[in-house]
Amino acid sequence: QVQLVESGGGLVQAGGSLRLSCAASGGTFSSYAMGWFRQVPGKEREFVATITMSGGSTLYADSVKGRFTISRDNAKNTVYLKMNSLKPEDTAIYYCAARRVGVATLARGYNYWGQGTQVTVSS
User: Fold this and answer.
1) N or C: which end of the chain has fewer CB within 10 A?
2) Among residues 55, 49, 47, which one has the least CA distance to residue 30?
3) Are 102 and 89 in contact (CB under 8 A)?
4) By 3-state DSSP, what share of the chain in percent is helix, strand and coil, each rounded to 5?
């Protein structure tokens, strides 16, 4: 059983940056592909980015490509999401998720979820 805890959310002005962290425990972190998703009230959870077990390959949603960077440190059991050039439409609760095999862009493909961290971008 893997436990995930996100941190680093907050309020930022448009054009600013934030770095989210997700600390994992209770499992072999390097055995899981990791993903970031986001959700606003009344909408489905949306894929943001994913990274392979080794960190050698990443995939991004078109809406964040070139602005967000996903990375991981397997020695620290942590995955990160660096968010630059933030826009008001990036406002959401951001969740990290773990998946046993491969990467996926659908939320239902992930086995474990964190509790989420709020990101608010003001215009």
Assistant:
1) N
2) 55
3) no
4) 5, 50, 45
Beta strands in the chain (DSSP E): 3-7, 10-13, 18-25, 33-39, 46-51, 58-60, 68-73, 78-83, 92-99, 112-113, 117-122
pLDDT, residue 27, reads 87
Spatial contact of 57 and 72, defined as CB atoms under 8 Å apart = no
Structure tokens at 33: 């592909």
Q: What integer is the mean pLDDT of 63-73?
A: 98
CA angle, 34 then 111 then 54, to 5°: 25
Length of the chain: 123
